[in-house]
Amino acid sequence: MSAINATTESLSEILSGDDVVLASKESPAAASRARRTPLLETESGKRVIEGAVNLVKAAFPPLLGILFFVALWALVANTNKSIPGPVETWGAAVVLFSDPFYNNGPNDMGIGWNILNSLYRVGLGFGAAAIIGIPLGFMIGRFQFLNQMMSPIISILRPVSPLAWLPIGLLVLQKAEPASIWVIFISSIWPMVLNTAAGVQRIPQDYLNVARVLNLSEFKVFTKILFPAVLPYVLTGVRLAIGVAWLVIVAAEMLTGGVGIGFWVWDEWNNLNVAHIIIAIFVVGIVGLLLEQLLMLIAKRFSYD
Predict the structure, then answer these.
(1) Measured distance CA(230)–CA(7) in Å, rounded
(2) Mean pLDDT on 166-188
(3) By the 8 A CB rule, do 195 and 252 touch?
(4) Rounded to the nearest 5 degrees, what angle is found at the Cα of 68, between the Cα atoms of 65 and 72?
(5) Closest among 52, 239, 244 to 252, alpha carbons compared
(6) Is the predicted pLDDT of residue 223 greater than 50, yes or no?
(7) Which neighbouring-strand residues pair with 109?
(8) Is the separation of the CB atoms in 179 and 166 below 8 Å?
(9) What 3 state SS string does 120-180 have?
(10) Smallest Cα–Cα separation from 186: which of 265, 124, 95?
């Protein structure tokens, strides 16, 4: 028989069974936890990190621009004491928007009512311009004779300042409310007419030749060929027109009065409340941006490939 040589220390370690006990106490769940990959090293973790980095890269330039603007504003306000600074304007905005829909009579309404009244006028004038301007643009682009007939009229009237139309509206309509809507209508119709006509004229002639060979009706030509191809141009004209309409309503309401954001700005100027005027400037800009972004989302939804 072969003998096994072992010292006293090694024999006691073997007989103690410490290694066996430790191995038996370690459960499979604990072993799997020990072998688990850290969250940030997994594919989902890496995607989260990449998304956070991209978000920071995208948000940093706008935030830097806003901080630069606020710093410049604070510097100007510190130099000219008649202009309220960012902190003072923010405090006035908090008080102003704490109750935006109060109503103490026609000449004392919250800023919420003034914004809604301006949007109402813009909606009426802009809607009327779309109802007339888009079909007119289709006809101008479709029929060469009509294009030649309307071209000099549009070329003369389009560059006219919007406010130059206000006296004509007051003279004909005899009231400030419809006169301001008329100004919005006549100012916002041109982008829709011109963009729609340009879209129709850029349709390949082969498409129309095929429609003529197939003896399609004018309704079929419009629904199957013209409308899908021209829709991006129409939506571009609509987006430009809503920007013009929102710009015009502020100036028109300053002159016509009534409830509206333009009249509210003029009233605050008469009260020498410059902080509210600055707030109104930001409100007009934000509302105009939201209207434009909404129309851009609609334009992305209705796209034909």
Answers:
(1) 96
(2) 90
(3) no
(4) 140
(5) 244
(6) yes
(7) 103
(8) yes
(9) HHHHHHHHHHHHHHHHHHHHHHHCHHHHHHHHHHHHHHCCCCHHHHHHHHHHHHCCHHHHH
(10) 124
Q: Give me the residue spans of the domains in the chain.
A: 2-83, 111-301
Q: What is the pLDDT of residues 116-129, one digit of tens each?
A: 999 999 999 999 99
State the chain's mean pLDDT as an integer: 82
Q: Say which CATH topology domain 111-301 has.
A: MetI-like fold (1.10.3720)
The rounded radius of gyration (Å) of the Cα atoms in the chain is 34
User: Which pair of structure tokens corresponds to residue 78?
Assistant: 């510190």
- DSSP reduced 3-state for 109: strand
Residues 84 and 73: their CA atoms lie apart, in Å, by 9
Q: At what angle do helices 274-301 and 111-142 cross, to 10 degrees?
A: 40
Where does the pLDDT of residue 115 fall: very low under 50, low under 70, confident under 90, or very high at 90 and above?
very high
Tens-digit pLDDT profile for residues 232-258: 888 889 988 998 899 898 888 888 877
How many residues does the structure list for the chain? 305
Regarding predicted confidence, which is higher, 33 or 192? 192
